[in-house]
Amino acid sequence: RRRRRRRRNNEMRIEKCYFCSSPCYPGHGTLFVRNDSKQFRFCRSKCHRNFKKKRNPRKVAWTKSYRKTRGKEMAIDSTFEFEKRRNRPVKYNRELMGKTIMAMQRVQNVKEQREARFFANRMLDAKAEKKEQARADLEKHIELLAPAVSQKEEILRNVVDSAKARVAARKKGSKQAVRIDNNSKAITSGADAAMDES
Known about the structure:
Elements: H1 2-10, E1 15-16, E2 23-24, E3 30-33, E4 39-42, H2 45-52, H3 64-69, H4 94-140, H5 142-197
């Protein structure tokens, strides 16, 4: 009995919000049943309010349907076929259940990889658009940058001069170290010769 209770507790159906398509976990959100007995689930009161105001989810910027219609997320893919609800009664079979769970995990992995690839391809186009926008902004407000550009040459000269000075100082320091090493070797060799004579 305890095992059965545990299994029942672990099983839960995660519904989707009618308005924004985000997950509705058990015990969360609201359920609206219309007069024709059609059910509408909402993840939060924000979605329910928008539904009552008769707003179209495809025109509200924060919903999944809006993102899909604007090409911001994958809209057409074979993995969406697995998410469709099938109201066909199937006799319980432990082996079939295990295979189904494995298949669900595999489909989820494939879907995540495809979504990541889709996002990367979309961002490639966005980079070019960002560059064009930045160029347009520079051309529009070039008078603000003119004084900074004139000072830029002076700053570059100062940086180059300081770098040259640092390199010269390092070279001088290394030459002095070599001289000190040569002097110490000469002193030690002279001391060794004196020891040999005595």
